[in-house]
Amino acid sequence: MATVRVVVGGAVFDQGRLLAARRSAPPELAGRWELPGGKLEPGESAEQALVRELREELGVETEPLERLAGEWPLKPGYVLQVWTARLVAGEPRPLQDHDELCWLTPDRVDDVDWLEQDRPAVALAARRLAAMDQAPPR
Ligand SMILES: Nc1nc2c([nH]c(=O)n2[C@H]2C[C@H](O)[C@@H](COP(=O)(O)OP(=O)(O)OP(=O)(O)O)O2)c(=O)[nH]1
């Protein structure tokens, strides 16, 4: 059986908002919004891959929190797994793969045109974020 490669997406939270990133490439995905992240490299854990990708793509330091239950098919041979993550340092900038970023409150997550394959994870992330906001850590 062919191996399936994992793409790790980050539901990055800060101040009660979720970060969305607009892809600049490839042409079939450009202009659509996604959860920033990328492919797991050999020998890396998903959390390590996520922290590396978010550093490379956005210039920020993040702390993975938890994996959202589920796995979503992407192009053939790839699946998306999503972790929530907390912004630890830096202000995200579209350094690689993206041309625009925006922060969305849970009630406004549908304001951007997400890639179809990201929508279930985005809905889960928004619910998670709304729940966190109602019970902030002491
Ligand atoms: N990062 C990310 N990729 C997604 C999402 N949804 C989705 O269909 N994809 C697709 C786009 C790409 O075909 C693939 C991930 O590739 P990528 O280009 O982000 O990964 P990478 O940074 O590791 O890229 P590279 O090493 O191939 O340059 O998954 C998503 O939410 N986040």
From TrEMBL:
BP GO annotations: DNA repair; DNA replication
Reactions listed under catalytic activity: 8-oxo-dGTP + H2O = 8-oxo-dGMP + diphosphate + H(+)
Residues in Nudix hydrolase domain copies: 3-126
Protein name: 8-oxo-dGTP diphosphatase
EC nos: 3.6.1.55
Signal peptide coordinates: none
UniProt enzyme class: hydrolase
Pfam families documented for this protein: NUDIX (PF00293)
Gene source species: Streptomyces triculaminicus
